[in-house]
Fold:
Amino acid sequence: MTETTIVHLLRHGEVHNPDGILYGRLPGYHLSEDGVLMAKAAADFFAGRDITVLYSSPMERARETAAPIAEVFGLTPVIDERLIEAANSFEGEKFEARMLRSPRMWPRFRNPVRPSWGEPYEEIARRMLRAAYAARDAARGHEAVCVSHQLPIWTARLKAEGRRLWHDPRSRECGLASVTSLVFEGNALVRTEYAEPAAALIRNPTVPGA
Structure:
């Protein structure tokens, strides 16, 4: 008999971002009031489960999402740089559709498969799954939570499921404060699961950011 271990990849809650900036890895972006409620909804979702390990991206919004879970389970979140948001050349800008028609922007869009505007999908998937495997090993026979960001979580899921990594961002199944779970039997990933414990709190699913 092999032991079952579950690693939950939790996307952070909504961020206060009234200017619609693509904030990426910029510091100073915190959860909104609704984002705080989403983090609590995620903690409620995990209550009663066998969570023994809690990892977090170093970004403020991720650490703030991890805080209610840490309180419920009496855990100290471990910061893992591998869970950080993807690097993006549009960081700090307000992305608008008209930018796609601007010749000066075209070099950034020359290779959507890599993608040319940011961290390669393969590198994102590699670091995210390494973080997930580390969480699996630390939580053997139990469950772990890793708080991260939309693109890294979605890319890790695509890689884990053997799917193509390049994609239309509108196709991502990774809502605010959503939970993408990797279920392991021993070292083998046997399935992925998905849940949205904070879905009722999402007022604007297209809020820029990650």
